[in-house]
Amino acid sequence: MSKLLLDGKRVAEVIQNGLKDRISQLKSKNVTPCLATILVGDDPSSETYVKMKGNACERNGIKSLKIHLPTETTTEELLEVIQTLNHDDYVHGILLQHPVPAHIDERKAFDYISTKKDVDGVTSAGYGQTALGFGQYPSCTPAAIMKVLEFYNIAAEGKLAVVIGRSPILGKPVSALLLNENATVITCHSKTVNLPELVRQADIVVAAVGKPKFVQGTWIKEGAVVIDAGYNKGNIGDVDYEACLGQASAITPVPGGIGPVTISMLLKHTVDAAEAAVTE
Amino acid sequence: MSKLLLDGKRVAEVIQNGLKDRISQLKSKNVTPCLATILVGDDPSSETYVKMKGNACERNGIKSLKIHLPTETTTEELLEVIQTLNHDDYVHGILLQHPVPAHIDERKAFDYISTKKDVDGVTSAGYGQTALGFGQYPSCTPAAIMKVLEFYNIAAEGKLAVVIGRSPILGKPVSALLLNENATVITCHSKTVNLPELVRQADIVVAAVGKPKFVQGTWIKEGAVVIDAGYNKGNIGDVDYEACLGQASAITPVPGGIGPVTISMLLKHTVDAAEAAVTE
User: Fold this and answer.
1) How far apart are CA B185 and CA A166, in angstroms?
2) pLDDT tens by residue, B17-36
3) Closest Cβ–Cβ partner in A134, A185, A188 for B187
4) Interface touch A124/B128, C-beta < 8 Å
5) Is residue A224 part of a domain?
6) Residues A254 and A176 in one domain
7) Does the N-terminal peptide bond of residue B253 adopt cis geometry, omega within 30 degrees of 0?
8) Lowest CB count within 10 Å: A60, A98, B97, B129, which one?
9) What is the number of CB-based contacts under 8 A between chain A and chain B?
10) Is A168 in contact with B129 (Cβ distance < 8 A)?
11) Is A134 part of any domain?
12) Which domain holds residue A90?
């Protein structure tokens, strides 16, 4: 059986190349796509993520507006910052880095972001639109997973897809997107009984659970497509890659799988939002 | 094995009895809960449904404001009516009867309803809130299904639930609600391969497909809970009741199952919305 190694870096490159002309077009109209990132507090991993996203913007000709707020920022203060960005015509996308300090109402803050600028796909309204089939900006990791499947011509229709995880920005929206592509979707989680037995039936397995090497080789049906959306400390995914490689017909590595495509989807959504703002 | 016949009329009665005091309280503050129903066109079944809902309101002390628009109403005209109701402090809930005539953008109309008055659970924003776990007014049939399970102490946690159907107001939201109650959820539909095989694994089966007697007795695992959310011409459900009765540990009939509870949830949501408006 030929084995397909799903190369996220290649998919990311193709997406980013596709943005070049669009960004030039926008700039010829004196519009520079702009992503505002909001970081609250001093969590070092969050700082790294935000910096990575900002750098990816700048490398691709997208303006990165970095807002760094102190840990003691209140929910009300954060909402004010978001509101200012909602009304700023130079800003096309807003990303609030998760997690915010515990005293802030994160859900309220997410839902304060205008759906038109919700390029990271965190609002509940945007989630509803995505799940009902007409969302503009699904969360970036689910969007990346669908893009990788599309790039490698892996059809979801009629397939049995098992999603492990049900977070608001990963497990739930990727379940919704797979369902909208006519997969039959099983959403699994920590309370699922007999998880291995369910995974063994899957044509497509999406690991989005946040536990290193959680998905075992013995769980994978021969010929299944294995998508690892996990990213744990030390660059380790949610899938035991070496163990699953033998069974899978196609598999994403970590790093170099879904990760780079996720950032590309964020850039793409920001350009989409800038174009939408121009034609409004 | 003792067989549980899930009696929707009884559940409905309990819900409606629970509303009496709350409605009296509201009236003592000079607030009468009010549901506005909008019917566009002359579809006889839709007329019947709207009348049924209006009568249920009146019987329970809830004001029913019936708005009947001609078939040739445009989307813009419908949006204006909805906007007026959104701003009318005497109106607590708005129900736009589905389906509207084909020339109207139904999704746009649904999404124009204020989430605070979306007691029928049709907006995409409300769906997103429900799916992410904090929705005030899930669609009434999914809410009714969860209420029947709760009433009969049937826990969803850890169970494998198979939902047949993925409509925006039934299959998708009931899948989301079951998932939030820690069931493992398989959402199935017309493109599902080997549906009977999946149903045979289910501890809870929800039929929401709109095809008379679609779910066969041979599909049901012994001891499964069978919920029939279908309602087809001639008072026929989506489940072959007689055939499934032998296998199931609990089952809802049609009529007298989920139907009456659905209307009760609409009344409850209207009272909820009136109370929320008072405390605002």
Assistant:
1) 11
2) 999 999 999 999 999 999 99
3) A185
4) yes
5) yes
6) yes
7) no
8) A98
9) 91
10) no
11) no
12) 30-116
